[in-house]
Specification:
Residues 25-155 form the Pseudouridine synthase RsuA/RluA-like domain. Helix content is 16%, strand content 32%. The protein has helices at residues 14-21, 54-65, 150-157, 223-231, and strands spanning 35-36, 45-46, 50-51, 69-78, 85-89, 92-95, 105-107, 113-117, 120-131, 134-143, 181-189, 194-198, 212-217. The chain is globular, with a radius of gyration of 18 Å.
């Protein structure tokens, strides 16, 4: 779902769902009801930071600006990645082609790219196997910058599009029940508060609808793995 929307016909938003679950926390003086410190793409699940008051929102936003926030994502991508890890440094800008409604992003080497900005993503291979019978790789991603669609664009750039990503598969990846991108862990160090939140792994092989069968295990999701990807910075 989208985080929020000015279109009153869009009912299924994170803002509206939060108002149902935590009505006492909604702030009527705010246009969107809550202090959304950052956002997740529409097809991305997982951890998102929402501040309870203005001071907390300012402190959290400052932490994001100063890169005092560590974000880790899980993804299943098409194909087998040969390397154990990759550091993807490729500027990202807007795609000018009208067929994408100016909502698609692209890397700076694309002829249709405008206003590219430096972008950096660290990628660590966790498992290799098959998703719905086709070669796939499970990866841990840590963005070092916060560009729009960054992880999706960078995965597409290296030739391993995220499974279920309708936009960056050129609208061909229709079969999966979801886009396999998940905000797995968020660690924030602000002047007001420190926290480190981690979810369960939604892309495990036990969940039938994932159709994920790992064959080769390279890294497990433990503290050593997070230390490994952090040291790549």
């Amino acid at each position: 779902m989208v985080v929020n929307s000015n279109d009153v016909t869009v009912k299924k938003t994170l803002e509206n769902e939060l108002k149902k679950i935590f009505p006492s926390l909604a702030n009527p003086s705010l246009k969107n009801g809550f202090y959304f410190v950052h956002r997740l793409d529409f097809p991305t699940s997982g951890v998102i930071c929402i501040a309870l008051n203005k001071n907390a929102a300012r402190a959290a936003s400052t932490a994001f600006e100063k890169r005092q926030v560590k974000k880790y994502y899980l993804a299943l991508v098409h194909g087998h990645i040969d390397e154990s890890h990759l550091i993807i440094n490729r500027p990202i800008g807007q795609d000018t082609r009208e067929i994408f409604g100016n909502k698609k992003m692209c890397t700076s080497d694309d002829d249709h790219c405008i206003k590219p900005r430096d972008s950096s993503t660290l990628l660590l291979v966790l498992e290799k196997g098959f998703c719905d019978g086709k070669p796939a790789t499970k990866i841990l991603l840590r963005p070092n910058t916060g560009r729009r669609h960054q992880l999706r664009v960078h995965c597409c750039y290296i030739g391993h599009t995220i499974i279920g990503d309708y936009t960056y598969s050129d609208r061909k990846d229709l079969k999966p029940y979801r886009t396999f991108l998940h905000s797995f862990r968020l660690a924030l160090d602000s002047e007001l508060e420190k926290f480190d939140v981690q979810t369960s792994d939604p892309f495990n092989s036990n969940y039938y609808f994932n159709k994920w069968v790992p064959i080769n295990f390279i890294y497990t999701l433990d503290s050593n793995t997070f230390d490994t990807i952090d040291k790549l910075l």
